[in-house]
Amino acid sequence: MSVSQTKKYHCVVKRLPSSTRVFVLYLRYPSLYFNSEKVFRVKPVLDEHVTLIKDLAQSIEVDFWTPESAEQVTAGINVDIRVPAMYLDLVYTMLQQSEMEHEVLIEDVQGAVDGQADTRPSPRAHSYTKYNTWSVIESWINSIASSSANLVSTQSIGRTYEGRTMTLLKLGKKTSSQKPAIFLDCGIHAREWISPAFCQWFVNEALTTYGSDAQMTSLLDQMDVFVLPLFNVDGYHYTHTSNRMWRKTRSRNSGSSCVGTDPNRNFDAGWCTVGASRNPCSETYCGASPESEIEVKNVANFIRQNKSVIKAYLTIHSYSQLLLFPYSYTYNLSAHHNELMSIAEGASSALRSLYGTRYTSGPGAATIYLAAGGSDDWSYDLGVKYSFTFELRDTGRYGFLLPESQIKPTCEETMLAVKYIAAHVQKNLY
């Protein structure tokens, strides 16, 4: 997405002791503002409506929240789009003339961005109920590894495009022999902040309940859990410093001024055949080739090297409240469809038991839309039978801008679903 918003500067004005009578201005970093922007939910029911939305996306800058691109718009699905202020009149006119059903989900995007943080002052220290910056997460990883050395070890699986370390946590009781494992990653898409918040929550929950919670104790005694707290580190850092709505990686694309690739279109699973774009400026750009993104290659290499022990792959996204499994790149059902559907429905039921949050379960293509190059399809085709994608809260009220006040309930309920899946995997090793 090219960005039309004006760059501004965050400023801190600090008064020195009264004797000096000087003001010091600290320029921090340029940050995009989304003043007067809105998020619409439009509901195309006719082919003409679909064509209208696709034409609109060609002519003006709109940011697709769900589905992830104009190409995936079909009749009968809800389409959530963020519209810059300068195009609001045009969009309102188009919607009225077409008589397409619509509503405004977010009246003021900048207000929602500002409202994500709760009213307490934001601590520099790590918090499980805040959206922590990458530097804070990095310090937390080091702290966890040293304070829980009996259950945690870390390893670098490589560096990102911009040179940041991708650190993997291995949770489990230390044994002399290799144990079967579950792989969990968060933050493939940079703007989905609730996702890395969950990975941090999971690690803390695992370590603090080991020894008291029978299921967690059994899990970590008998299996290991590999946790990648943040997959798209560069993109996530960019959402905290420059553009809250950034989705892709931060790699440069040859022959284009547009930056980044969608890492969840870059895996070698039906790569770039459906639901992905070959345009580097698209939010669903599949990259120059499968695993062209170093972050994707690093993760794929690790899973390939450990595929004999990795029995489940769980990847956390937002939003829409979905629990998906292969396939997304084809409508064909997977070989283990019935078992995966049963697990997904059971996990969704466990999740719902806490706060009543309703999830929809099913294979990606049939449940939402075709999308090739996803990590869950790739891991499944590699031989990791229990491959699942979570789309966490909510269903559009806040979208990617879920307030920090919802981190705790979201993570608590998601833990129940993850533990349900883990228990099934533990009892059905293959």
UniProtKB/TrEMBL annotation:
GO biological process: one example: proteolysis
Cell compartment(s), UniProt: Zymogen granule lumen
Catalytic activity entry: Preferential release of a C-terminal lysine or arginine amino acid
One Pfam family hit: Peptidase_M14
Active-site residues annotated for this sequence: E391
GO cellular component: extracellular space
Domain of life: Eukaryota
Single GO MF annotation: metallocarboxypeptidase activity
Annotated keywords: Carboxypeptidase, Disulfide bond, Hydrolase, Metal-binding, Metalloprotease, Protease, Signal, Zinc
Domain Peptidase M14 intervals: 130-425
Family annotation (InterPro entries): CARBOXYPEPT_ZN_1 (IPR057246), CARBOXYPEPT_ZN_2 (IPR057247), M14A-like_propep (IPR036990), M14A_act_pep (IPR003146), Peptidase_M14 (IPR000834)
Major localisation: other
EC numbers on record: 3.4.17.2
Cofactor(s) named in the record: Zn(2+)
Family: Belongs to the peptidase M14 family.
Protein name per its UniProtKB record: Carboxypeptidase B
Species for this entry: Acanthochromis polyacanthus (spiny chromis)
